[in-house]
Amino acid sequence: GGYNTNEIFRVDKGFVAQIQGVEGGRRARMNPALAEEASKTVPDEFSDIPHERGVLSMGKFDEPHTGTSSFSMVLGDAHFLDGKYTIFGRVISGDHVLSKLEKVETKKEGIFVMPKERIELLSACIMYADDDGRLFGSLEDLEANLKLSEGARTGGGDGEAAMKATTSSGKRKRGKKARPEPKAEESLPMEEL
C-alpha cells in the first residue's frame, strides 16, 4: 500500500499523531500510478463528528479543498479543528497504541513536535467494521456479513445460510478454506513501540 514504509512524523501529546503524506514519507519507491494518485488533492467534506481521541482526520493546506494523503490520529479533544479538517474514520480498537505514541520521546522543530526517532509504518491496509466492531478485509466481506446477519435476524431464507457460513466465534467461512477475520492489532503494526 501507499503508506508502507511511511512514517509518523508528528507526535504532539494530547493533540495528534500525524502520518506523512505518501509522496514525502515513504522509504520505498513509488510506481508511476501510485505517484500520480498521491499527488491528487481531495475536496473538504465536513460533518458534525467532533475531533476527539481516536478520530482520523485528513491533512490539508490552508486553502480549501487541498486534502492530501497525510492524516492525523487525534490524541485528545481538538474541537477547534471541527469544520476545518475532513474526518474519515475512527480507531475502533488499539487505543493502547495511541497511548504508546504519546510516550515517545519528542523534539520541537518549528511548529511541529516530532519523534526523536523515526516511527515507520511497516504496512497499512483498509479495514471495514460492522456495527459490532468486527473487522473485515474488504467491503465485499463486510456486505456479505451484513446480508447474512440480516437474514438471521429477520428469519429470512439466508438465516440458515448465515448459521452455516459462520463459525461459533462469528468468523465467516468460505468453502473449504476458512479465512480468519483480521484483528485490529494486525492493522496497526506499530505495536512494537
From TrEMBL:
User: Which stretches make up the PPIase cyclophilin-type domain?
Assistant: 1-126
Q: Which Pfam families match?
A: Pro_isomerase (PF00160)
The GO terms this record gives for MF are: peptidyl-prolyl cis-trans isomerase activity
Note the superkingdom of the native organism.
Eukaryota
Region ranges (Disordered)? 150-193
Return the protein name: PPIase cyclophilin-type domain-containing protein
Q: Which organism is it from?
A: Haptolina ericina
- Top-down, what is the taxonomic lineage of the species of origin? Eukaryota, Haptista, Haptophyta, Prymnesiophyceae, Prymnesiales
